[in-house]
Write a structure and sequence with these properties.
Elements (H helix, E strand, L loop, with lengths): L10 E6 L3 H12 L5 E4 L12 E2 L9 E2 H14 L3 E4 L2 E5 L5 E5 L4 E9 L3 E3 L5 H5 L5 E2 L2 H4 L7 E5 L3 H10 L5 E5 L9 H9 L3 E4 L2 E7 L6 E6 L5 E5 L2 E4 L3 E3 L30 E3 L11 H21 L2
The chain binds NADP nicotinamide-adenine-dinucleotide phosphate.
């Protein structure tokens, strides 16, 4: 089996993920001469590559475009000697050191320490018509696709902060925004609720789920089912934005690492250490609360320092 060798066939540090967490870990550990190997998965650059203007990343008085910001992170990591490798990890064996990561194509990485910064992905409803019309009116990112719905009608699914944030943002473009929620109480914060209730373009349909997204080549409507009465109704819409939360990308670690009830990696308080010595977690994969680029970068830095200290300690 081909191995991706560091010195002596075993990497000192492998970082999984190239969002703000992974790349900040790469910058810090490369500057500490650990020569990290950084594995880029299916979405190099992470979630910021599907956003447009980032206005809240410190250091930028003017908005910076998400992909540009991530390119800058990457170049900085490269400058200090990070090695990048494209591939998907299919299996991980963290039961002994060196840890073993097996790629889809069978190649392996052996590594003394591991930083997991694989992030989280948007959840989908899981109905066939959603898949069929993905990119044809179905989206999980208002910032990316909202612009295409100028003067059109859109539906947002969900009742949390993300749903109301997306709905409010979409009112900049859309003629109307209908929020469809499966209960009659929102999960979103009061401030976010107040803002949405005040917005004349937003209306709510309660206790309802999307049974089918209608349309052949593009979205034309949705069929909703009232979960209390079981009655169905069709609502005309040009777009469906699914905003029902995120799923951390942790499936391959479930045998070795402690996950919380939502599948997020559990780390020790005040550190990035997981339940396995030498394995650290950073960014959204271990954070369902803050989920910001700057907090991901912060924990990426912490993970690099934790890994460096661990390697120095010779444990
Ligand atoms: P969330 O709080 O988990 O809310 C998900 C929403 O989607 C819930 O209302 C849930 O309904 C609904 N839902 C889940 N699965 C569904 C399904 N299969 N079909 C229909 N509806 C479904 O997720 P989130 O809104 O993405 O927020 C995640 C975290 O990020 C939260 O801590 C939030 O505060 C934070 N956040 C903060 C901001 C901000 O402060 N600017 C913005 C976005 C997110 P139920 O309510 O019935 O469970």
């Amino acid at each position: 089996m081909e191995k991706l060798d560091g010195a002596g066939g075993v990497e000192a540090l492998t970082i999984l993920g190239t969002g703000p967490a992974g790349l900040t870990a790469a910058i810090y550990s490369a500057r500490a001469n650990l020569k990290p190997l950084c594995v880029e998965g299916e979405q190099p650059g992470g979630q910021l590559t599907i956003t447009s203007d980032v206005e809240n990343y410190p250091g930028f008085a003017e908005p910076v475009v998400g992909p540009d910001l991530m390119n800058a992170f990457r170049k900085q990591a490269e400058r200090f000697g990070t090695r990048f490798f494209q591939g998907n990890i299919a299996r991980a064996d963290l039961s002994q050191r060196p840890f073993r990561l097996v790629m889809n194509d069978g190649r392996e990485i052996l590594t003394q320490t591991l930083i997991i910064a694989t992030g989280a992905s948007a959840k989908w409803i899981g109905i066939p018509s959603e898949k069929k019309l993905m990119g044809k009116g179905v989206s999980a990112c208002a910032t990316c696709d909202g612009f295409f719905f100028r003067n059109l009608d859109v539906v947002v699914v969900g009742g949390g902060d993300t749903a109301l944030e997306e709905a409010t943002f979409l009112t900049r473009f859309a003629k109307s925004v209908t929020v469809v929620h499966r209960r009659a109480q929102l999960r979103a914060s009061k401030a976010m609720q107040d803002r949405a209730f005040k917005n004349p373009k937003i209306r709510f349909i309660w206790d309802s789920a999307i049974e089918e997204i209608l349309g052949e080549k593009a979205v034309t409507g949705v069929r909703l089912k009232n979960l209390l009465t079981e009655q169905t109704q069709e609502v005309k819409t040009d777009g469906v934005f699914v905003a029902i939360g995120h799923q951390p990308n942790t499936a391959i670690f479930k045998n070795d690492l402690t996950l919380d009830e939502s599948g997020y990696l559990v780390v020790q308080k005040g550190s990035t250490l997981t339940n396995v010595s030498g394995v650290f977690a950073a960014g959204d994969v271990a954070d369902h609360v803050y989920r910001q680029a700057v907090t991901a970068a912060g924990t990426g830095c912490m993970a690099a320092l934790d890994a460096e200290r661990f390697l120095e300690s010779g444990d």
